[in-house]
Every structure is written in structure tokens, then in C-alpha cells.
């Protein structure tokens, strides 16, 4: 399968990982949009939020658990952060492997566009 994030999971494309377990990987975004910008992804290839099923309930919950943990480790839990999922073209999705952006480290602008 020609998926950039599956290649990152396999290690075929290098990344700066900050977390990994059997189900989830998190790594620094290559083009950070904030002082802290980390992508949290399931190892299971799920293309978009629309492709999540009830079978993935525990996995989805764990993505948020990992996001909270990384926010703490990055020192932005108390100052604040933003979690974003872009779904499909008009949502701004570029990589079609489900991911949550963890953004923080400065004051976020109001959601725009
Ligand atoms: P999307 O727009 O699909 O929600 O977000 C995709 C994100 O992946 C973007 O923020 C982009 O900077 C990031 N990205 C694209 N290619 C790479 C890569 O090769 N390595 C890493 N670490 N991030 C990438
Ligand atoms: Zn994938």
C-alpha cells in the first residue's frame, strides 16, 4: 500500500518518534505549524475519520489518551493545546491515514477558513 504514514510506522521513512506502542505511533510533524506539532496515528491503516467503525472505539479512545500524555510530556497540558483531525479534501486532509494533530506552545488563533 502506498501510504506515507504506513511507511513511517514501518520505519521505511524516518521520523522523530515521541511515542510508540503496539497500536499507536506519535512523531513530530515535518512542517510544524506551532512550537509543538505532533501527529498521533493508529498503526492500523484507517484512511479517514469516515472509515472509523465501532470496532475502533477502544483505539480512538487510546489516541486521545496518548494525546493527553504527550501534551503533559511536552509541557503544554496546562498552558493549553489543540487537537485537530482533518477529514477529506475540504477538511484539509493531505495524508490519507487517520491522524490527530497535537498543536501547542503558543496562543492559538481562532479557528479560521
Ligand atoms: P493533514 O493535512 O493530512 O491533516 O496533515 C498531514 C501532515 O503530515 C501535515 O501537517 C504535514 O506537514 C505532515 N507530513 C507530511 N509528510 C510528512 C513526513 O514525511 N513526515 C512527517 N513527520 N510529517 C509529514
Ligand atoms: Zn497508512
Describe this structure in words.
This is Histidine triad nucleotide-binding protein. One of its GO terms (molecular function) is catalytic activity. The protein has one domain (4-104): HIT family, subunit A (2-Layer Sandwich). The chain is 21% helix and 22% strand. It has two helices and five strands. It has helices at residues 4-10, 57-73, and strands at residues 17-20, 24-28, 36-42, 81-84, 100-104. Strand 1 and strand 2 form a beta hairpin. The longest helix has 17 residues, at 57-73.
SSE sequence, one letter per element:
HEEEHEE
What fold name stands as the CATH topology? Answer: HIT family, subunit A
How does CATH name the architecture?
Answer: 2-Layer Sandwich
Structural class assignment: alpha+beta
Kindly report the spatial arrangement of strands forming the biggest sheet. Answer: 1-2-3-5-4
Instruction: Give the rounded overall mean pLDDT.
Output: 97
Distance between the termini: 32 Å
Q: Give the helix proportion (percent range).
A: 10-25%
In total, the number of strands is: 5
Q: Can you tell me the number of structural domains?
A: 1
CATH class: Alpha Beta
Protein name: Histidine triad nucleotide-binding protein
GO molecular function, one term: catalytic activity
Organism: Paenibacillus baekrokdamisoli
Amino acid at each position: 500500500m502506498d501510504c506515507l504514514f504506513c511507511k513511517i510506522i514501518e520505519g521505511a521513512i524516518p521520523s522523530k518518534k515521541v511515542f510508540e506502542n503496539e497500536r499507536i505511533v506519535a512523531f513530530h510533524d515535518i512542517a510544524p505549524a506551532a512550537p509543538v506539532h505532533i501527529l498521533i496515528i493508529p498503526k492500523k491503516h484507517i484512511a479517514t475519520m469516515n472509515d472509523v467503525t465501532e470496532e475502533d472505539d477502544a483505539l480512538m479512545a487510546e489516541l486521545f489518551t496518548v494525546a493527553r500524555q504527550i501534551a503533559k510530556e511536552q509541557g503544554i497540558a496546562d498552558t493549553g493545546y489543540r487537537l485537530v483531525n482533518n477529514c477529506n479534501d475540504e477538511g484539509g486532509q493531505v495524508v490519507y491515514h487517520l491522524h490527530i494533530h497535537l498543536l501547542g506552545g503558543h496562543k492559538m488563533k481562532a479557528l479560521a477558513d
